[in-house]
Amino acid sequence: MIPTSEENYLFRFQRVLDYIDNHVDNDLTVDLLSQVAFFSKFHFHRQFSELFGISVYKYIQLTRLKRASYQLAFRIQNPVINIALESSYEGPESFSRAFKKTLGQSPTEFRKQPHWKDWHATFKSLDDIRIMCMTTLEQTLQVQIINFPETQIAVLEHHGDPQLLGQSIRRFIAWRKQHQLAPSLSKTFNILYEDPEIEAALYRIDIGVETNMLIKDDPTGIVSKTIPSGRCAVLRHIGSDDLLRQTIHNLYAIWLPSSGEELRDFPIFLQRIKFFPDVPETEAVIDIFLPLK
């Protein structure tokens, strides 16, 4: 397929978004980013603002603060001053002012008890921009069919509003650390029972880790489950979780109808290979498993 003029235009901006994600610690100027996109520096900032509805400077700030918020919430061993400097602020004071102005909480307050609904509202514009620029077909060409082995996992079941999933993730990370099940040693899985677009009260997802540990009456709510063996279609998603739903859509709506395959009676599940904020969002890796008969 020959890309349209609009697709070429969006692709040039996708290069810019990827560059920002991969160089978020660096000095990101309009001159530099216009060169990445092969646009005139005299027009680039207007092109960006008119296309996406926010300035490139605001986009960069939100990208930095999103990574910082992940580090505050999920990497509690990382001191606030380190996060401030890694986010290109001169120190914790200027970082705290910018963070509170954007999210309504200081970094310390957010680390203690994040207001997740406000967080989702703050970063929705990043989600929308990335979805707009996402290429929809190229990943569907990389589907493989494998025999997945039976795998024992310990899971925390999240029931309810997907915008509050961060609370469950924090509980799960704390339990995982307590039991020394580091991601580098024990595989991380999610079982997706419902689409996030379902009514919030009905949403369900399991946050899990591979382990043969016998779990009984755990006070945290962790339970043992099994991912059964069987054939699976596997599609690797590289990039932000913001785009994961679109990749799953491609698997169901584009690959599956033309594959001749039928689905097995087990939910779609994920294995998380590389994690944001440990790597840039564009380098996060998730394998999507679609169970087949």
Give structural notes.
This protein has 293 residues and is an alpha+beta fold. Helices cover 43% and strands 18% of the residues. It has helices at 5-22, 30-37, 44-52, 56-74, 80-86, 92-103, 107-112, 116-133, 165-178, 244-259, and strands at 144-148, 151-159, 188-192, 204-210, 223-227, 230-238, 268-274, 285-291. It has an eight-stranded antiparallel β-sheet with strand order 1-6-8-7-3-4-2-5. The radius of gyration is 20 Å and the shape is globular. The chain starts with a helix and ends with a strand. The model is unreliable at 136-140 (pLDDT under 50).
Keywords:
293 residues, alpha+beta, 8 strands
Topology:
Elements: H1 5-22, H2 30-37, H3 44-52, H4 56-74, H5 80-86, H6 92-103, H7 107-112, H8 116-133, E1 144-148, E2 151-159, H9 165-178, E3 188-192, E4 204-210, E5 223-227, E6 230-238, H10 244-259, E7 268-274, E8 285-291
Antiparallel strand pairs: 1-6, 2-4, 2-5, 3-4, 3-7, 6-8, 7-8
Helix pairs in contact: 1-2, 5-6
Mean pLDDT over the residues? 92
Could you tell me the strand content as a percent range? Answer: 15-25%
Could you say which overall geometry the principal axes of the C-alpha atoms support?
globular
Q: How many β-strand stretches?
A: 8
Amino- and carboxy-terminal Cα gap: 32 Å
Extract low-pLDDT stretches: 136-140
